[in-house]
Amino acid sequence: MNATPRWLNPEQKAAWDSFIRMQETLIGRLSRRVQADSHMSAADYLVLVSLTERGGGRMRFLDLANSVEWEKSRMSHQVRRMTNRGLVSKEECPDDGRGAFIVATPAGYKAIEEAAPTHVAHVRRLFIDALTQEELDTLARISNRVLEHMKKQPD
């Protein structure tokens, strides 16, 4: 690393600060709505979405943690809380004695199916409706470019 920091210029700082404020405000408001509307935490919702949309209802523990960008310990605590509430179950992996599958239970499916329509309405109201389709397309391209760039960078 360079000894001298490469400070952001005023335009870069303004863009970064606006992005962070928007992201934190949006996530905060959506998290509060999920909690109020469905009595699930935002973390519960995120895990259930990952399991049901990406994993077909069942994912290896580490794949689930990676899909939501969490450390193993955070995922372990979250899975324990969700297991205690009957939203997920943990199954041993027959071909890997140390691995486990996390499985959405019928109660987990019911919870996400009930929460998703209201959640998407809030996403639309707070985010989608503020932008034109062209702006959404541009945002998707920018987001994907940054994600691809991050894959090439050390963690």
From TrEMBL:
InterPro entries the UniProt entry points to: HTH_MarR-typ, MarR/SlyA-like, WH-like_DNA-bd_sf, WH_DNA-bd_sf
Cited SMART domains: HTH_MARR (SM00347)
Signal peptide location: none
Matching Pfam families: MarR
GO molecular function, one term: DNA-binding transcription factor activity
Stretches assigned to the HTH marR-type domain: 1-148
A single GO BP: response to stress
Protein name listed in UniProt: MarR family transcriptional regulator
